[in-house]
Amino acid sequence: MTDAELIDQFEACTLPFDQWTHRTHVKVAYIYLTRHGFDEALARIRAGIKAYNAANRVPDGTLMGYNETTTHALLHLIEAVRRAYAQTHPTTDADAFYDMHPELHSKHILRLFYSPQHRMAPDTKASFVEPDLAPLPRFVDSDGK
Question: Does residue 134 sit within a domain?
């Protein structure tokens, strides 16, 4: 599936639910980040996940449904990696980006930054909460600036 097809299916909520995996989440985030700035990418993925969850009747509970902190922090990590390697290791599409960056392959990557009780606290679902274990990386371009 091309990047355009993936975004079309995600935004139309027609992507088969069994295909909404961690890999797909990273790919959608990457595509939005390459097309838009961080804030716009965050707004789009936030709205997309909420609509996709509603279309697939995902219950919204303490451990299920949309979580702003999880979405924001993961998007932040993807953008930090994307910027750091954009010049030295350019990629042509979301699959290539994902395959080139095994550090993003674990759906548990946020455990390096958040304790479970902190990331899953009730206030983290509605608004972004900074990590309690380690700060998220700064955005640094591949030229070191």
Answer: no
Domain encompassing residue 59: 3-126
Q: Are 83 and 41 in contact (CB under 8 A)?
A: no
For residue 92, being part of any structural domain is answered with: yes
What are the structure tokens assigned to 76, written together?
């932040």
Q: Is residue 120 part of a domain?
A: yes
0.90 exceeded by pTM? yes
CA distance 30 to 11: 15
Per-residue pLDDT tens digits of the chain, which is 145 residues long: 999 999 999 999 999 999 999 999 999 999 999 999 999 999 999 999 999 999 999 988 777 889 999 999 999 999 999 999 988 888 989 999 999 999 999 999 999 999 999 988 888 888 999 999 999 998 876 555 5
CB–CB of 42/75 below 8 Å? yes
How many other C-beta atoms can be found within 10 angstroms of the C-beta atom of residue 31?
21
The total of structural domains in the chain comes to 1
